Amino acid sequence: MTLLILTAGFFAPRSLHAQGTGNRTLPGDVYFAMFGPYYDGDYASCVRGFRDSARGGLVSIEGRWVDAICYHTMMGESYNQMGDLTNALDQYTSACKLFLAHRDWLLRVEFPPNIDAENNPRVAITWGAPTRPLKIGRFPEKFQVLFGRIDNQQAANQGGVIAPPSLRPVNVLEIARCIAVSIRRRGELMGPTCEHDPLTGQLVDALARRPGPPNHWAQCLVEIQYGLALASANKSVQAISELQRGLLAGGVLDHPLTSLALLELGRIAFDQEKYDVALTYFMEATYSAAWFDRFDVMEEAFRQAQMTHIISGQPGVFAPAVPASAWAKSKRLRTMNVTLLTGLAENLFVTGDLNNASATIGQARSNLGRGEALQGTMGCRINYQAARIQLAQGNNLGGGTSLVAALGYQRKASPGLFQIALADAMFTSGGVTERLADLLYANVLREPRPRDWQLDPLEVIAIQSTPHPIPMEHWFELALSRKELEKALEIADRIRRHRFHSVVPLGGRLLALRWVLQAPKELLDESAQLQRQDLLNRFAAYDALNQQATAARTALEQLPLLPPDDADQKKQLELFNQLGQVSTGQEHLLNQIALSRAAADQPFPPLRAVKDTQKDLPPGSLVLAFFQTSRNLHGFAFTNEQYAYFTLESPAKLKAEMMDLFKKLSLYDRNAAVPVEDLASDAWKTPAAAILKKLSNGAGAEDWAKYKELIIVPDSFLWYVPFEALPLPGSETGASLISHLNIRYAPTMSLVLGDRRGQKPLSKTAIVAGKILPREDERIAAAVAEQLATALPGSTVLTGNTVAPGSLLGTQFDRLVMLTDMEETDKLPFGWSPLQLDRGKPGANLSDWMTLPWGCPEQLVFPTFHSPAEYGLKRGGNGDEMFLTICGLMASGSRSMLLSRWRVGGRSTADFVREYSQELPHLPAADAHRRAITLLRGTSLDPREEGRLRAPATLEEFKPEHPFFWAGYMLVDSSAYVPREKAKPAAE
Q1: Contact (Cβ atoms closer than 8 angstroms) between residue 243 and residue 227
Q2: What percent of the chain has pLDDT over 70?
Q3: How far is CA 874 from CA 83, 870, 878, 922, in A?
Q4: Is the whole model's pTM more than 0.85, yes or no?
Q5: 853, 811 in Cβ contact below 8 A?
Q6: How far, in Å, CA of 376 to CA of 408, rounded?
Q7: Which residues have a Cβ under 8 Å from the Cβ of 567 and sit 6 or more positions away?
Q8: CA-closest candidate to residue 653, choices 682, 695, 619
């Protein structure tokens, strides 16, 4: 017995230990009785059972002893299986703190000097053959541990607790195992935050002192715990060394912690993408674990081995799965059997054996039953694989139901989302420096990498589809506090991008696949283009459908939008039906690909460094980008040479000034008639000037004189600001900004510049005709549409029912002009119809336009669009519907959009649209926009042709100089413009 340190003080047991413990082994029988339900998946019951077993733990005047580590650890394991990561981490942390409080406890254990080998093998390994020389040690279930003091003289002389020495039986190896499990799980749950947590450093320091009997076989227990602590501190090289040293007791025999060390070595090798090494470690872990009844380790090792087999591209089915499943079934190890079957189902699915995959996942679900495990992580994995198989079988309803269940669970049990919250709390509590916080945020808030999709597609989808704006805001504010202004603006763009992705299906996963597979190559970087080729090679069925869709679209392009003869009309209808069916088939395949381990970058909205945008920004262009956080409204201004940042004071006051401006612009009600005398007033200029001063950080006349173009990236309620009308400072005539420079908008900083698509000839324009105002005569509306069609060669006027839904029809023209009132404002951003003629029908909504076939009209002219500005913001409006709608249209392929903040109607709208649209083939959209406003302001109109103007009968004409008539037209444009007449001839 190791008694050289036993003269040291130890806590004295109370005269009455925890009720009824006596000299029974710690932990007690109640604790071990819960492992049956645990392996059966009754995790909620296990939490209660392990908590109850803690009542039999050892308690003294100094608190609980290390046996309580077991209760905490197994409660943590049960919580973890139920996806309750907060409570799980609390339990693991409590276990680790208890260990630190009693870090020298192994020095009181009466270990035998040597351990014998097991000569009576009782486990038949049926699923493989060990590659290590497997020698199993024969370890007793309990060791004697010394309690109390050998020398109580000092306590007797000076006062204190007399603690007579006594020995009692303790399951030392179970306590040592639970210490190791808690260290490992804590690192797993905390992820990149773990290495910066003080408790991690304390664990590493404590175990580095080797707190166990020196030069003794029991040091293997400490070495494994130390290796796991090093791994949680992100010190993999040192961790590998310690774990390998701890594999064998006395350098010869496997022990009860060997399998856990092998599992961790496999995890490290897997993270290093050494798949052959990882697979070997995982399998070796199953063999060693089987000898010591560590069925939880076996289950995890099998799951990791099956995933490694799939990810590394190994052919066929993972061979050990079937015999291992039979072995688990014979041992009545329900959760292990279910895990093996679930992994086998995925493996069969990947190999194309749908029937057996379906039968296998059904068997897994049946074996799991309707117990508690079905509501936990295991049930989530079954639902996820079931969704993949059901979708591939054409069972969209069943697949959708299974996916909703799996994704709902994953969102609450996501380690990634949990780690985002941990990193954020670590920063806001002052637990890390700003430098480390920046690194943590960059890690946990990163864009998905190809390997992330390989490892766990459902986890990535859960993170992408769950809004987490506050941690991202904190990262933004951290960059500002560190004076990293360009980085702050780039983070703001990431926040906008996440805002959009979080509200589209599967967190933007489907959108990403559509862009990677279908968008013009000019919109894809080299990585995405390689991904396209890989996906088409892997999913040949999709490629075949893609060729059919291309053929149908090519045939449709040879026909006019409204074929004049019956034969062509019939042919067009057949082609649209064919295109719709093929596109539906492609969408079904996309849903299957989305759930696979296939990588696909997200090209839209793009990510672009500020310095790259600045480099390509033309001279004379000014970008004003705004970003609203929960605390402040921030402004960024930059040209191709300079950069500035400012904070806008009192956003609430600014919004009040905007509402005052709208009131003075006569924006009360979308259909209300405006008295002509109200439009003679200049009262609107006072709030307008104040607004511009704030939004430009007090820029003066000499500053504005430098610029030829203003590009605005709005946020929040700034989407409603009519920058076009804001008066230039110091202008004697009160000239507005639009009279001095071009103005356009972009939803993100990365979309300020045009994409790499060339400017193609606009061969087809669709004009949708109808009443713009409720009281308008339909004949006048039709006449206006015909006049516009005459001015725009290649135009077709659409009225009444369409031959195909807008999501299909929109692929057949390059420009869409809306000359009818756009309803469904309450259904923004994705539930409204951009074509309007097909409202309420399948395939009509913007959400349908974002699906295949890819590509809506590149140019959209919507002078009858509605926003909260037309009610003066009295009915609310936070700008999100504008941002998301515009992103949705651009995600569908649009490059240039003219949207009205408020609808005017009448001759003024008709003239504006005609002048703007007819110049688009010849001028950049921003030039055409400014020119149309200038012409409108200079023309004379008949007040009787303005449905929203109330004028006396004696007024024969007027000039629409008031901003009510022209400042509502907002141009969102990211199209690169190359004048066709300046394009270099092919011969050159």
Answers
A1: yes
A2: 94
A3: 44, 9, 12, 40
A4: yes
A5: yes
A6: 11
A7: none
A8: 695
